[in-house]
Design a protein that fits this description.
Elements (H helix, E strand, L loop, with lengths): L6 H12 L14 H12 L12 H10 L1 H4 L22 H18 L17 H18 L3
């Protein structure tokens, strides 16, 4: 399984982000490309320790049982629901969001597992830094495939 801590895997994701343009359109879902980039940055803020969304009741009940979907080898399902706090619905600047996400990826990758926040995922609950690394790669891959890159 690929993970974002691996320099090769992070470089691959960064190259794919560079292939996006303001005109990129989703193959599924309703987010525009700049919203998707902002969503991915907001998601990555959780393990970086910049955001601490609360655990929802459904996640508290079933999150621990389904959390392998976040870091296993299977792609994430299309149109999967998201954490309400990182649902982006306003207009965003493509260039600014693209650069912010690339900086977040680079920082998270270079900081390594040692700097991963212990704050739990709002749905899946506590994750190890290694699980976060795989999950972040998988989440980014999911949204980049959503936009055809």
């Amino acid at each position: 399984m690929k993970d974002i801590y691996d320099k090769t895997h992070a470089a691959e994701i960064l190259r794919r982000i560079d292939q996006l343009s303001p005109q990129s359109t989703p193959q599924w879902g309703t987010m525009q490309v700049a919203q998707m980039l902002a969503h991915c940055s907001a998601f990555q803020d959780i393990p970086m320790g910049n955001s601490s969304p609360p655990r929802g009741w459904l996640g508290r009940v079933i999150g621990r049982f389904v959390k392998p979907v976040f870091y296993n080898d299977k792609p994430l399902p299309l149109n999967m629901s998201t954490i309400p706090e990182i649902l982006i619905s306003d207009n965003r600047d493509f260039g600014a969001e693209q650069e912010k996400l690339k900086q977040n990826i680079t920082k998270f990758q270079s900081d390594g597992p040692e700097k991963c926040s212990p704050h739990p995922h709002p749905f899946f609950g506590p994750l190890t830094p290694e699980q976060w690394g795989k999950g972040i790669y998988k989440h980014l891959d999911h949204h980049l495939r959503q936009f055809g890159v």
